[in-house]
């Protein structure tokens, strides 16, 4: 349980470990995109942590990184194909994010820092915790940016039609992403140090 | 070459081999499903952009179709254009009736390789933007700021203009197919 909570708060991948900033900044313009990216990451993280934990004793230390990368990219491709074949509707929403996960350093970081040193069950808990931590962080970004930048939540207009016509457009553009993540990190830091 | 090096190379070889074998297996299982879904999606999309038509014989593979209604009458054509947007080509499927009015358009999703910016250019996929094209002839297919009748998406003029111009140029390019039908 400790490992599960750990990933959500004390070691939140985005706001504390500062990993995976690239997708967090790039794919958080709307809440729906943000959650889509987060869910795809959870799938890959679970799979890669599971397999890497299983094979951790058979992989010599010099070969860790190349083997981890093979495992991760294999998983990403499997998920890409499977989703496309059996969940085409879901794929329409998440498909664009799946290939991006290969370059998400959260996955490799957890493989190296956790799954290669811990048992399968702990690695799964870690993957869930980190994954949920990632979803919450990127989801918070998406929520704030969509609300202020488009006046809507998941496409539904909530701040009134006039605001929707004339929103703080800056927020859905890249500078808005940096601004929001800075505020979130500052809030997280304040909460952790107090 | 020490035995240790050989051992490492072998392990990496095995890892890559297992990965390749797994992927080729997954690929061969999923490929037919994926293709089948693509065919179904295309048929559904054709029916949506050219309402009334039920059969779509191919004129140019993957590019141009004729729309035939249930009585066997040719009601128009449907074609794909790939105007260059902000992030790359924007795959657009357009249905045009015999009187050269646009019947409807559908724009590919990001999962199908469309790369406009989420929150900005990607909004060309929204219903209000697509619905503007309905019942319009090519003379009116310009953005309002270019002297036409269509609203652009705020802060995404490049993507909006690309789609509008792509649809109009597509009609110019393929309109002769409609004339042939009337003869």
Please indicate the percent range of residues of chain A in DSSP E strands (runs of 2 or more). under 5%
Mean pLDDT over the residues of chain B: 89
Question: Are there runs of chain A of 5+ residues with pLDDT below 50, and where?
Answer: none
**Most extensive interface:** A-B, 36 and 28 residues
Given as residue ranges, the uncertain stretches of chain B (5+ residues, pLDDT < 50) are none
Give the mean pLDDT of chain A: 86
The H/E string of chain B reads HEEEEEEHH
SS-based structural class of chain A?
Answer: mainly alpha
Q: Treating each run of at least 4 consecutive H or I residues as one helix, how many helices of chain A?
A: 9
Instruction: Count every helix of chain B, treating DSSP H or I runs of 4 or more residues as helices.
Output: 3
Helix content class of chain B: 40-55%
Strand coverage percent of chain B:
15-25%
Shape of chain A: globular
The total count of strands of chain B amounts to: 6
Strand order in space, largest sheet of chain A = 1-2
Q: Percentage of helical residues of chain A?
A: 55-70%
Distance separating the two termini of chain A: 23 Å
Q: Provide the domain count of chain A.
A: 1
Subunit structure (chain A): The complex is composed of six subunits: RnfA, RnfB, RnfC, RnfD, RnfE and RnfG.
Main location (chain A): membrane
Organism (chain A): candidate division TA06 bacterium DG_26
Membrane topology (chain A): Multi-pass membrane protein
């Amino acid at each position: 349980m400790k490992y599960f909570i750990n990933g959500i708060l004390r070691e939140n991948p985005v706001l504390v470990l500062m990993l995976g900033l690239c997708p967090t900044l790039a794919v958080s313009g709307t809440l729906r995109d943000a959650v889509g990216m987060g869910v795809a990451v959870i799938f890959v993280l679970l799979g890669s942590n599971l397999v890497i934990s299983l094979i951790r004793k058979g992989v010599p230390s010099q070969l860790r990184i190349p083997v981890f990368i093979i495992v991760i990219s294999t998983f990403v491709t499997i998920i890409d194909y499977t989703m496309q074949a059996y969940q085409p509707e879901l794929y329409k929403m998440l498909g664009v994010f799946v290939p991006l996960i290969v370059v998400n350093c959260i996955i490799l970081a957890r493989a190296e820092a956790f799954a290669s040193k811990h048992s399968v069950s702990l690695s799964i808990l870690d993957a869930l915790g980190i994954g949920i931590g990632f979803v919450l962080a990127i989801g918070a970004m998406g929520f704030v940016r969509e609300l202020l930048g488009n006046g809507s939540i998941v496409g539904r207009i909530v701040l009134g039609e006039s605001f929707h016509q004339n929103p703080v457009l800056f927020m859905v553009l890249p500078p808005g992403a940096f601004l929001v993540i800075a505020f979130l990190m500052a809030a997280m830091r304040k909460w952790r140090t107090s | 070459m020490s035995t240790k090096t050989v051992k490492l190379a072998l392990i990496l070889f095995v890892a890559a081999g297992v990965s390749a074998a797994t992927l080729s297996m997954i690929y061969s299982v999923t490929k037919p499903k994926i293709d089948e879904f693509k065919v179904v999606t295309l048929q559904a999309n054709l029916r949506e952009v050219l309402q009334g038509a039920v059969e779509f014989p191919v004129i140019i593979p993957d590019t141009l179709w004729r729309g035939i209604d249930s009585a066997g009458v040719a009601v128009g054509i449907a074609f794909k254009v790939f105007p260059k947007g902000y992030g790359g080509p924007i795959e657009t499927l357009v249905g045009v009736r015999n009187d050269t009015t646009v019947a409807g358009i559908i724009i590919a999703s990001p999962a199908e390789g469309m790369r406009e910016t989420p929150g900005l250019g990607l909004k060309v996929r929204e219903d209000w933007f697509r619905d503007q094209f309905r019942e319009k002839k090519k003379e009116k297919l310009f953005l309002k700021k270019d002297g036409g009748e269509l609203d652009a998406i705020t802060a995404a003029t490049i993507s909006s203009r690309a789609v509008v111009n792509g649809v109009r140029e597509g009609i110019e390019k393929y309109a002769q197919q409609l004339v042939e039908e009337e003869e």
